[in-house]
Amino acid sequence: MNFEASRRFAQQKDKEDKLAKYKQQFYFPQIDGADSIYFCGNSLGLQSKQVQASVQQELDDWKNRGIAGFLNAKNPWMYYQEYFKKSLSKIVGCKEDEVTVMNSLTVNLHLLMLTFYRPTSSRFKIIMEAGAFPSDQYAVETQVKHHGFDWDAAVIEIAPREGEKTLRHEDILSLIETNGASVAMVMLGGINYYTGQLFDIKSITEATQKAGAIAGFDLAHAAGNVHLELHDWNVDFAVWCSYKYLNGGPGAVGGLYVHERYATDPSTPRFAGWWGNDEQARFKMKKGFVAKPNASGWNISTAQILNMASLKASLEMFEEAGFEDIKVKSRELTAYLEFLLQQLHHLDFEIITPAHRESRGAQLSLYFKERGKEIHEKMIDSGIVVDYREPGVVRVAPAPLYCSYQDVYRFYEILKDFD
C-alpha cells in the first residue's frame, strides 16, 4: 500500500476504517486532563466501557441469588469457563474442545509442563530463547530442578548471532536438529516480548516433533494479536495471559490450549482438581478422578467469576468486530508506523522488530543508541503512553481496536520535531 507522511492522509485512513468506532468504546488514561494516546497494549490492554456492566451483572447475581447463581445466574457460574471457548478458538486457531481459561499464565505453564515435560536420563533438555521473559525462565528453571536436573545441563538457550538483535529461523531449526536426541521439549514465546519478533510456530513445531520432542509456546504477546492456527500447526500445547491484546484487565484469567490428541484422552496425565472432573460425576463426591474429555479437563478450581467477567466483555467485542478484520487493520497500522519512522533521518535509531510482516504483530521495538530514555519521557509528557526497556528500547504497540492512524502520525510528529 502507498502511504503518505501527512496528517491529511492519516485522517482519511481513519474515515475509511470500519473499526474506528471501537476506539470510543474504551477508557483512556488521562494526561493533563485529556485522553492519552495509548501504545502499551502489549503490556496491559485498555478497559472497554462494557466491563463495568459485565462485572456488575455477576455482583448483582451474587447479591440477589447467592449460591443459586451457580445454576440460575444470567450467566450460570457452573459453566462460566465454557463461555470463552467459541471466541478463543477463533483467536488462537483451534477446536473449541482444545481451549479453556483458568488461573494465570505462569500457573498454567507449570501445569502443562507437568503434563508434557516427562524427562528421561537421555532425553531431558529444553530449548528456549536466551533472555526470554523472566516468567518463562523461572518456570523452566524450577521445572528442570524439580526433576533433578541442573539448569546448565538441561536448558539450551538460543541467542541471536553476534551483532544481531533477533533470532534467525534457520538457527532455531538447526539447534533442534542438532540436539534432537536429547531434547524433551522446545518452549518458546510465540512473540519475543523485547524485539517483537514473531516466530514461525508451524515449522518449529514440525522440527520439534520430528526430533521426538514436545512443542509448547507462551503466546502472551501473540494471542489476540497475530494469526494463529494452533490445531492445524499441530502444536502440542500453549498458554497465554489475557491482559495484553485481549484486554481482560490486570491479572486477568489466563488461557491454555491442548491439542485434541491429548485433550480428548482422559488418561493424559495432569494435576487434577474438582472442576476438571467429569461433570456427570462431579457431585457424587466419589474417589477417582475422571477428566473431562477436552481442555477443560485441566481445570482445577471453581471458575474465577469476577476475574473472568472483564475478559468476557472484551471477547464479546472481538466477536462483534471480527478477528479477521482486527488482524487486517493491525498489519496496516503497524506498517504505517514503520513507514513514518523510515522518514526520520535525524535520529540515530533502528527498528529491531523484523520488517517482514509475517514475522511480527502490532509492536515495533525502536532501539535508540542514545537518548532512548529521554525520548520515552518526551512521549509521556506529550500524552503518548509507550514503554521503555533497557538498553535504549522504546516499544510501540498500536493495538487496532483503540489506536488510530492519527495516533500513529502524532507519534511520528513528536519524533520529527525532537532534536
Write up this protein.
Strands 4-10-9-8-7-5-6 form a seven-stranded mixed beta sheet, with helices on both faces. By secondary structure, it is α/β, with parallel strands linked by helices. The two termini are 30 Å apart. The model has no long low-confidence stretch (mean pLDDT 96). It is globular, with a radius of gyration of 22 Å. Helix 5 packs parallel to helix 6 (134-146) and helix 12 runs parallel beside helix 14. It has 14 helices and 15 strands. 35% of the residues lie in helices and 13% in strands. The longest helix has 19 residues, at 323-341.
Q: Which key phrases capture this entry?
A:
419 residues, alpha/beta, Aspartate Aminotransferase, domain 1, Aspartate Aminotransferase, domain 2, 7-stranded mixed sheet, 15 strands
